[in-house]
Amino acid sequence: MATHEIRITKMVLPVYVYGMSVLRKTAREIDKDYEGLTQLIEDMYETMEASEGVGLAAPQIGKSIRLFLIDATRMEDVDDEPDLKGFKRVFINPYITEEWDDKWSFSEGCLSIPNIREDVSRHSRVRIEYYDENWEFHEEEYDGVKARIIQHEYDHLDGRLFVDLINPLRKKLIGPKLRAISKGNADADYKIIYPKK
Ligand code: NI
After folding, report:
1. Degrees, nearest 5: CA angle 176-178-109
2. CB 39 within 8 A of CB 8
3. pLDDT for position 6
4. Which end of the chain, N or C, is surrounded by fewer C-beta atoms within 10 Å?
5. 46 catalytic per annotation
6. Which residues lie near ion ligand 1 (Cβ < 5 Å)?
7. Which residue out of 46, 98, 133, 153 is catalytically annotated?
8. What is the mean pLDDT for each group of 10 consecutive residues in the chain (197 residues)?
9. Gap from CA of 36 to ligand 1 centroid (Å)
10. DSSP state letter for 25
């Protein structure tokens, strides 16, 4: 009798970049019956790893659903952020219910906007409700860099990108670079999808 081992083959997915309309949509909630969710989460972790990202939202791989993943474990050595130790989790149907405290600036980047980093000002604390991959409900507060990563990924679910939040002069200056990315002229060392002409 043959035994069949069930095994998930993880795949690296191409990242949708600036100019793709899916990045501008308001993503929809999903339920427990969403087909292929476990596989999707595995593939997104794999994609994040391959592209050395700390966060990835579903619209960035072309799915307009309220799901993002964070894996900041890589960042703890890079940026000397001990606070980020073990910060790796899945956020399903998340809602930021409150943002407060002083705004602070931090240099952000995004896998959908390769090779551009800009200072973005955001509140330093957030409260967020979400379900994890086991559909356990959580309500948690975060501050500092953790809050920052959450805010950035969360924005993707509402069709917002960090370049929408930078000062207008900087936005104008990076305009040509953004247009180049939307034409596929992005110097990314991971696979991307950009708008067809
Ligand atoms: Ni991003």
Report:
1. 130
2. yes
3. 63
4. N
5. no
6. 110
7. 153
8. 67 97 98 96 96 96 98 71 85 98 95 96 97 98 95 98 96 96 93 90
9. 23
10. S
C-alpha 150 – ligand 1 centre gap (Å): 10
Token duo for residue 93: 């149907």
Ligand 1 centroid – CA 65 distance (Å)? 15
What's the Cα-to-Cα distance from 69 to each of 55, 77, 141, rounded to whole Å?
Answer: 6, 19, 17
Tokens representing residue 51 in the block: 């592209």
Domains of the chain: 15-193 (3.90.45.10)
- CA of 5 from ligand 1 middle (Å) equals 36
Spell out the SS3 assignment of 34-71: CCCHHHHHHHHHHHHHHCCCCEEEHHHHCCCECEEEEE
Token look-up 């980093």 returns 117
149 C-alpha vs ligand 1 centroid, how far in Å? 9
pLDDT tens-digit map of 94-140 = 999 999 999 999 999 999 999 999 999 999 999 999 999 999 999 99
User: 178: number of CA atoms within 13 Å, CB side?
Assistant: 17
Radius of gyration in angstroms for the set of CA atoms belonging to the chain, rounded to a whole number: 17
- Closest listed residue to residue 48, CA positions, set 13, 20, 79: 13
